[in-house]
Amino acid sequence: MIEIHEVTKTFQDKKIFVTALKHVSFSMKKGEVVGLLGENGAGKTTLLRMIATLLSPTEGQVSVAGYDTIKEPDEIKKRIGVLFGGETGLYDRLTARENLEYFARLYGLSKHETKVRIDDLAKMFGMRDYLNRKVGGFSKGMRQKVAIARAIIHNPDIILFDEPTTGLDITSSNVFRQLVHQLKREGKTIVFSSHIMEEVTMLCDSVAMMHKGELVYQGNLESLYQAEGSRDLNYIFMSKLVRRDDYAS
Ligand SMILES: Nc1ncnc2c1ncn2[C@@H]1O[C@H](COP(=O)(O)OP(=O)(O)O)[C@@H](O)[C@H]1O
Ligand SMILES: [Mg+2]
User: Fold this and answer.
1) How, if at all, do strands 189-194 and 158-162 pair?
2) For the segment 26-65, what is each residue's pLDDT rounded down to a tens digit?
3) What is the CATH number of domain 2-248?
4) 8: which of 117, 121, 166, 172 lies 20 to 30 Å off by Cα?
5) What residues contact residue 164 under an 8 Å CB cut-off, 6+ apart?
6) What is the per-residue burial (b if ≥16 Cβ within 10 Å, else e) of 87-113?
7) Among 18, 36, 209, which residue has the most ligand 1 atoms within 8 Å of its CB, making it the best to mutate?
8) Is any atom of ligand 1 closer than 6 Å to the C-beta of 20?
9) Long-range pairs, 180-184, Cβ under 8 A, ≥24
10) 9: part of which helix (H) or strand (E)?
11) What are the φ/ψ torsions at residue 31 (nearest 5 degrees)?
């Protein structure tokens, strides 16, 4: 579903070069929930932006649903839903329904398709009670639901979330977790970045652990637990880093 092949990304900030990703390769299967783990600056956002066709690799290739992110970005954009950071992109003065209608129009959904889709999402996410209220007065959890609904209004197969629960309280984080379960049941492929190990343990089938732009581990969580003789992801992550030469120095 998502193939990342030998990707390197170098940013130039005035005269300084920053290598955000170094020879990263991995793949994600259809219907999988993948957690992208790593400290600040590990390269998570850079990688997600690349999958979302918003950034081009300096070297290497990324393909999504069989399409190349550089050569066929439009094919990919139709098939992905993205939600980056705390940016909900919602209009406070519009109702939840109006917000969703607005984004549905941007994706070219017909009036009828839009209505059906909004009804489905409202039911799935439990938003029916406040669909016709202005978003300005919503709690963070309610906003989170509308923001996710907005990101997937066009019913994409692949959904990318960058740090979806950073800055959210426990209730709103739980909203996100429930929604991921729902979307997984619908057969969606989901990739989200996080530095919260518990969240990844709860939700993900597999993980990609990143450190300073390199991929430290990628694979099935259950196999990782078996191989490491532990189910403590935090411990596993730290011990993988310690085993790398560069971490101590
Ligand atoms: N537009 C940019 N210009 C310069 N450096 C950048 C840019 N975007 C990211 N970086 C650098 O790339 C590295 C990885 O960043 P990022 O992907 O945001 O990490 P993460 O999301 O894991 O915190 C960091 O060192 C960051 O400073
Ligand atoms: Mg980031």
Assistant:
1) parallel
2) 999 999 999 999 989 999 999 999 999 999 999 999 999 9
3) 3.40.50.300
4) 166
5) 83, 144, 176, 192, 194
6) ebebeeeebbbebbbebbeebebeeee
7) 18
8) yes
9) 180/33, 182/124, 182/125, 183/152, 183/159, 184/31, 184/33
10) strand 2-13
11) 80, 5
Q: Do 122 and 100 form a contact (C-beta atoms < 8 A)?
A: no
Dump the DSSP string for 177-224.
Answer: HHHHHHHHHTT-EEEEEES-HHHHHHH-SEEEEEETTEEEEEEEHHHH
In the chain, where are the structural domains located?
Answer: 2-248
Ligand positioned closest to the Cα atom of 162? 2
d(C-alpha 225, C-alpha 231), whole Å: 5
